[in-house]
Amino acid sequence: MHLSKKCSAFKVVLGALLIVALLQLLYLSFLSKFHGKQQRYRYSELFGGSGGKTNGHPEKNWRKERLRYSLSTGGIFDNSGQYRVYKSLIKSDFTTNLKPGSDPSSNILTLATHTTINNLHHLESLLERWQNPLSVAIFAHGEDVRFATALVYALSFFCPQIQALVDFHLVCLSGETASFPEKDREHFAGLEDCASVFLRLEKHRDKYKNYDISGNVSYPNNLLRNVARSGTESAYVLVIDIDMMPSADLHQQFLAMVRKHKPAGDEVFVLPAFEIRHARKIPANKAELVQLYQVGEVRPFYEELCPRCQAPTNYSRWVNSHVRETATLEVAYTITWVDPWEPFYIGPNSVPLYDENFKQYGFNRISQSCELFVAGYKFSVLSSAFVVHRGFKIQGEFHARKDEENKRNRVLFRSFKEGLKTKYPSSIRRC
């Protein structure tokens, strides 16, 4: 009798476990179907459903057709014939809505930047800080061409602030072409909103560094800078790398400054450049930055790798002047350019382009600031604006061919300087 009761109890427990397992299977099946339905809905939103039907979002359909048209042109080749350039692959609402005769102050300053797809995740925090027009040139190679096209489209679709403010341009090797990403379902799987797109980019971040691309492909940094610059019609442009951050409210402060005193056409406005420990939060203003600088958590940009490249900025003078934070931005002092100074600056969109012969590491920005000097530009350091690079630059973190590239570009720089004598025959300045 006792054994019979035990068997009955065991059967009841077993039956209950079977029912729970069955319910779990039904629940998982429901979730899978729901998720699949949700993904099909998202995919239909992205591409208007099968057969090219519209999805009820005319502004997003326009964005899709704009991308399709940009890709159908096949891009244009750069001057060397080595790279294919898709300018204005995605245009922001800000750029699209600019009309002739509109208030010029609405388009006074654009931030231009460049990257490979593995560093594009920095765009999220950069745009959060900048909150104004931004032009991004992306270099992609191999399979990353498809991935970059798909993810840029997803960003422009899911992220309202990117729709409003960011223009994207794509550069790849001349033998590669970008295609409309409608069939690349694997790249869109799991993308449901803006946060999920940046999460996908974050997972892609460690594939390689910009200067260490597979297949010995050269990163055309100066071409990318020029592409990003040419993608804007702003009166002034700030060109920085995508892993750098400008001080907060720089756009508004600069706008107020130029409204108060119209700058000369041959003047650029230098932003002292710093680098900060990875664990530290990027300072918003000069007071916060100086506090971190005084305890060694922030230091001059390239202090370990090339102190001479930034030393002419005169960090001591800048740090100790105008420490009191004000809303007014002004010129603190002017500097005569000396080799090898490579300042970051806000300049008129008419300044000379970067020389596209410089690729990979070394002399790509020095060459351009050298030309500015020979062309007669004045370098004015702003009182409280700055840019900060995320993380300290140290020797051990660079790619293996850095020194080799630097030597090659040093030779190129010598011939570049000789060329400036012909380009600016009336200039008495030399670099």
Task: Walk me through the topology.
Blueprint: H1 2-47, H2 58-72, E1 76-77, E2 83-90, H3 93-97, E3 109-116, H4 123-130, E4 134-139, H5 144-158, H6 160-165, E5 166-173, H7 185-188, H8 194-203, H9 221-230, E6 236-239, E7 244-246, H10 250-260, E8 267-271, E9 273-276, H11 286-294, E10 298-300, H12 315-319, E11 331-335, E12 344-348, H13 366-374, E13 378-382, E14 387-390, H14 402-423
Parallel strand pairs: 3-4, 3-6, 4-5, 8-13, 9-14
Antiparallel strand pairs: 1-2, 2-5, 6-12, 7-14, 8-12, 9-10, 11-13
Helix pairs in contact: 5-8, 13-14
What does this structure look like?
It is a single-pass type II membrane protein. It is found in: Golgi apparatus membrane. Its main location: Golgi. This protein folds into two domains: 62-97 and 105-242, no CATH class; 244-430, no CATH class. 41% of the residues lie in helices and 16% in strands. It has 14 helices and 14 strands. The strands form two sheets. A ten-stranded mixed β-sheet has the order 1-2-5-4-3-6-12-8-13-11. A four-stranded mixed β-sheet has the order 7-14-9-10. The longest helix has 46 residues, at 2-47. The chain is globular, with a radius of gyration of 26 Å.
Distance between the termini: 105 Å
Q: How much of the polypeptide forms β-strand, as a percent range?
A: 15-25%
Query: Cα-atom Rg, whole angstroms?
Result: 26 Å
Provide the low-confidence segments as ranges. Answer: 34-41, 49-55
Provide the structure class.
alpha/beta
Q: Mind summarizing the main beta sheet?
A: 10 strands, mixed
In total, how many beta strands? Answer: 14
Strand line-up in the sheet with most strands? 1-2-5-4-3-6-12-8-13-11
- Report the mean per-residue pLDDT as an integer: 86
Secondary-structure element sequence? HHEEHEHEHHEHHHEEHEEHEHEEHEEH
Q: Percent helix among the residues?
A: 40-55%
| Alpha plus pi helix count | 14
- Based on Cα principal axes, name the global outline: globular
Structural domain count: 2
